[in-house]
Specification:
The protein contains 26 helices and 17 strands. The chain has 631 residues and is of the alpha+beta class. Strand 8 (148-152) and strand 9 (155-159) form a beta hairpin. The model has no long low-confidence stretch (mean pLDDT 91).
Length: 631
């Protein structure tokens, strides 16, 4: 696990300054505290920070081919590297380490830009072909590892984090207001956009080829759509899924350093633990969880039940509100673009705690997006019936009653769910409906909030994903949208920020592309059966887990944002969103922001999502937005 970066000049005669490369590299020390490495060639430079996982002493990067003409850096892990290595040795290639990243320059010599199609792993990688002045960047299929790039004024830059690019003195940036609109709608900024104009995320399952000043970006893999296996039986699907889960977890146990697992007590992380005990002595499986004082957010009792059932070496840390609030300044420094999923706070706390004991942690991310595990999929089914009611009844009677429900600060409270449901159910397009259910602001809200025109394409990313999956059934089409947007741009981005901020490698066995392909081809009725979410996964692993774990409702991994903003964060919220400050910055209408704050503080409305999105943007603006003024 590493942080990588690079500089390529369109003019090969213009040398890359080592100081510029080192400055970019230094921004990512947390990603790789163990080692650093550089390559400087003709008008090109690569840098890396290393967290040593495989071949601790011999895995120094960049890695080179025998001739030294092909150089590679990689952030992540290549799980099938041993098979690739054996094939390459058979073709005459010589290796000098046991590192997974050493296969990259040799594999490139064999297959060129097809390289990522041969890999099973999580990665952001770069291969520099010196003789042909060609750079190949690639990002893993589901987007576990990030990669950013920009091409301005004859300089191509890339890095594992946005802050690495911002460290280059010649990068000119300004806030992209269209991206800000997207952030406020989704609570994250979907790829390929970033908060800065002219700086981009490489999308998951895409490769970028830079050659002599030209840039081409194209996909190398896609989630299957329209290939649903309606004839598969539940028992066959169950057996196949169990085999895939077992193989995927086994692949991800490769490590030369201590390894553990995040355990929430939900079905996904519990499934990972169950599969680990098939390949390890249960007493050697190290499980980690955190507990909260606020009971509507706490899941620690379930985690303990799972740990006791499998006899794991379990550790739990109690987190008070003061503990979590103390992490906010550090989190603000990690988040180099706006991000409003509050679960990053406990995720970072869990990562820090886990890192005290191990260097690698497996997790259960992806299960909800593969097998329909969010209540919004139940809501979609309910919305079909709701929309059959007369419009006048919905808007004139049910809507006002829902909005009049007493406000609660509890996690996913009844009034919160009812009001969210009514707001989204009135939207015709399914992908936009779900974006509104999951996000903070609708287009109507943005028109009232923003001091500029948000534009008509705020939800274009959701529509683009929906249109790409038209061959799929309606339910699988929605799952495709969730995998491409919410999973890649929220869940996996959050885990990468939080785990790497703690110098911890996080692995997601459920996102092995073989499991993703299998799940995508399953009929939707095996995922959401009636109103039963994750039907096939529960059927497959239910007997392996303690009683009641597979059938649990989804709680989520959150913090009491609504309560905090009326309590320990009240002063900070009011300062960050003060009218004069908002007016001076020029992004929002001060009166609209003031109304959101006042209604929440007086419990007239639960504006937790809207206020947290604004709260996090203002912190980003104070910390990182000034970057655009400092050059």
């Amino acid at each position: 696990m590493c942080g990588i970066c690079g500089i390529i000049h369109d003019d090969p005669a213009r040398a890359v300054q080592r100081d510029h490369l080192a400055r970019m590299n230094r921004t990512m020390v947390h990603r790789g505290p163990d080692d650093e490495g550089f390559y400087l060639g003709r008008g090109a430079g690569l840098g890396m920070r290393r967290l040593s996982i495989i071949d601790v002493s011999g895995g120094h990067q960049p890695m080179a081919s025998e001739s030294g003409k092909i150089q590679a850096v990689c952030n992540g892990e290549i799980y099938n590297f041993q098979e690739i290595r054996d094939e390459l040795i058979g073709k005459g290639h010589a290796f000098h380490s046991r590192s997974d990243s050493e296969v990259l320059p040799h594999l490139y010599e064999e297959v060129g830009a097809l390289l990522p199609t041969k890999l099973n792993g999580m990665f952001g990688l770069a291969v520099w072909d010196e003789p042909n002045r060609t750079l190949v960047l690639a990002r893993d299929r589901m987007g576990e590892k990030p990669l950013f790039w920009s091409h301005q004024n004859g300089i191509f830059l890339f890095g594992s984090e946005l802050k690495a690019l911002l460290a280059h003195p010649e990068l000119a940036v300004s806030t992209d207001r269209a991206a800000l609109s997207r952030y406020l709608a989704y609570e994250y900024i979907p790829a390929p956009h970033t908060i800065f104009e002219g700086v981009y995320k490489l999308e998951p399952a895409h490769a970028l080829i830079y050659r002599n000043g030209s840039v081409e970006v194209k996909p190398y893999w896609g989630i299957p759509v329209g290939e649903e296996n309606e004839g598969i039986s539940e028992e066959t699907a169950r057996e196949e899924l169990l085999g895939l889960l077992s193989r995927s977890v086994k692949r991800r146990l490769i490590s030369d350093v201590p390894l553990g697992v995040f355990l929430s007590g939900g079905i996904d992380s519990s499934t990972v633990v169950a599969m680990m005990t098939r390949h390890m002595n249960p007493n050697d499986v190290k499980t980690f969880s955190i507990s909260f004082e606020e009971k509507s957010f706490d899941e620690s009792s379930y985690a303990r039940r799972v740990a006791e059932h499998f006899h794991t070496d379990h550790r739990e840390q109690a987190c008070t509100p003061a503990d979590l609030l103390a992490l906010m300044p550090r989190i603000t420094g990690l988040l180099d673009e706006p991000f409003a999923d509050p679960s990053i706070v406990p995720t970072y706390a869990l990562s820090l705690f886990t890192r005290e004991h191990v260097t690698v942690a497996l997790g259960g991310d992806g299960g909800d997006e593969l097998f329909a595990g969010y209540p919004t999929f139940q809501a979609e089914r309910a919305a079909r019936w709701y929309r059959l009611l007369p419009r006048a009844l919905r808007r004139g009677v049910i809507g006002p009653i829902g909005r009049a429900l007493p406000v609660s600060d509890k996690n996913i409270s009844f009034d919160f769910k009812v009001k969210k449901f009514i707001k989204g159910a009135e939207i015709d397009d399914p992908s936009i409906r779900h974006a509104v259910w999951m996000g903070a602001f609708s287009l109507e809200d943005l028109n009232e909030l923003l001091a500029f025109d948000p534009g008509a394409d705020v939800f274009a990313d959701a529509l683009r994903c929906e249109n790409a999956a038209t061959a799929a059934s309606p339910g699988n089409r929605l799952l495709y949208v969730y995998k491409k947007l919410y999973l890649a741009e929220d869940i996996l981005a959050k885990v990468d920020w939080a785990s790497m901020g703690a110098s911890l490698e996080a692995r997601a066995p459920l996102l092995d592309h073989e499991i993703v392909e299998f799940a995508a081809r399953l009929p939707y009725r095996m995922k959401l059966k009636g109103f039963k979410m994750k039907y096939l996964l529960k059927k497959a692993v239910g007997d392996l887990l303690p009683k009641g774990i597979a059938g649990r409702g989804k709680k989520g991994f959150g913090i009491p944002v609504a309560k905090w903003m009326k309590g320990p964060l009240k002063e900070m919220t009011c300062d960050l969103l003060a009218k004069d400050k908002i007016r001076r910055e020029g992004f929002f209408r001060p009166e609209s922001v003031a109304r959101l704050v006042e209604d929440h503080m007086k419990s007239r409305a639960d504006n937790r999502q809207q206020l947290w999105s604004l709260f996090m943007f203002e912190q980003w603006l104070d910390r990182w937005g000034s970057t655009q003024l400092a050059k």
